Amino acid sequence: MLQMxxxxxxxxxxxxxxxIIKVYADSVADLAELKVGDKVIELDSCTIPDCPAKVAxx
Length: 58
Known about the structure:
Blueprint: E1 18-19, H1 28-31, E2 39-40, E3 42-43, E4 46-47, H2 53-56
Antiparallel strand pairs: 1-2, 3-4
């Protein structure tokens, strides 16, 4: 049986977090108070790497 994922993951399965390496002044990241060295492990309650592209892109 062939199964198809309607919403493939946005992130590679090898990626489990995103490291913040630069934050621009007055950017959304700056306003969210992200700092260099912070690690993003989920986006809008969607855990990386299993976050579907449909959710990650909105």
